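Hi F.,

I've been meaning to write this up properly since the lab meeting, where we talked about keeping a consistent format for the predictions we share between groups. The idea is simple: the sequence comes first, exactly as it goes in, then the structure tokens exactly as they come out, then a line or two of notes. No screenshots and no reformatting. I'm using this chain as the first example so we have something concrete to point to.
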Amino acid sequence: MTKSSVLIIAIFLLLACKKSDKNIVNKQQEKTTIDSLLTAFHKGATDADYHSFFNKLDKEAVYIGTAAEEVWSKKAFEQFSKPYFDAGKAWDFKTLERTVYISKEGNFAWFNELLNTWMGTCRGSGVLEKKQNTWQIKQYVLSVAIPNNDIQKVIAVKKENDALFLEKYNNE
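Output, unedited:
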């Protein structure tokens, strides 16, 4: 192999590594941006700042609450939540930990987080999309974390409500 061939291969490998490093840095920057967005999302609710909270949600966002029937479009969730925000008392979720993942293309992200809430420990998870260089929450799911040792007690407590809820599926 000639010296010029070795030099060309070395330059190619160096550029490939540099490009790869750039992607790693960008993904970390995106994760930091998303972490800040989600922190501000929760702070919007804590501060009862309606616009700060809802502006983080995409216009087609879905918010899934802890009850089986709580699958809210953004518009329906805004209507439900507005009286709480107007009264200056929405909800206060403190993030205990959060993990963010970015798609290979860098335009979708998903996350899970543990939260300290008035309901005890909850889990939030969701999906974000990056459009026109801005991240927006497409879906947010809130669930109550139930220790495995307590699940039988929870099943017993919710049995009656589950039966009522499931009637609409049994009649189809």
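Notes:
The helical segments are 3-46, 50-54, 74-86, 151-170.
The chain has a mean pLDDT of 89.

If this format works for you, I'll send the rest the same way.

G.
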